[in-house]
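Justification of resources, computational component.

The compute hours requested in this renewal are based largely on the per-chain cost of generating structure records like the one below. Each record pairs the submitted sequence with a full structure-token output. That output is archived, and it is also reused by downstream analysis tasks.
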Amino acid sequence: MKKKIKMTIICSIMALGVCFSSARHAEGLQTEEYRKEKIQNVEEKQKNSLPILVNRTHMLSEDYQVSLHTLKSGRCAVAEEIYEDLSRMLTDGSQEGCSFVVASGYRSRERQKELLEEDIQNLMDEQNMTYEQAWEESVKETMPPGCSEHETGLAVDIVSAEYQLLDEGQEDTAEYQWLKENCWKYGFILRYPPDKTDITGINYEPWHFRYVGAEAAQEITEQGLTLEEYISLHNLI
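The structure output for this chain reads:
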């Protein structure tokens, strides 16, 4: 009788062990599935956010969130999702004799406001403009707070180490020429080309490059589009 009871207890313990093991296995599968689903959702969110349009008529939401990665130079940071491709692009260009400086990356809304006010004040002081006149002139290059791509962390100003001025002279540098020919391979576009100012609303900036992802960058470059035209073409707004 005792032997029978003992065997019953052993069988019960084994059964509980099997159930516990199965439960743990099921829990593990659920956790793994949840992890994969979460990663997929994040990747999809990032993919969909890359062609986001930010300009004077499409302001960035005040609750926009960006995870930043500081560049090795320590001069600025960019959105986490563009860091790897930006690094590859600059490294490949350097191996072909270029010397780049990332002059600007992410900017907070507060910093963007400061820059615009500085530009406005300079024009008022140097050219005796009214505030309204200086504002109209300044926003052709420096966007108002909430309207700058730099607030997304997806835009970078890249200049030659030998010519670190943000003006049209940048287009004569070997660094700009290389970027113009190759940036699309890494998911970047020249955001404000010289022949599209009527569409972008921004003066030609041969230093301002925007990350949109490899697929969009290739199509925009091959078809000679602006981001505004690409967004409209694919009904992304």
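The CA atoms of residues 89 and 186 lie 6 Å apart. The chain is about 50% helix and 10% strand.
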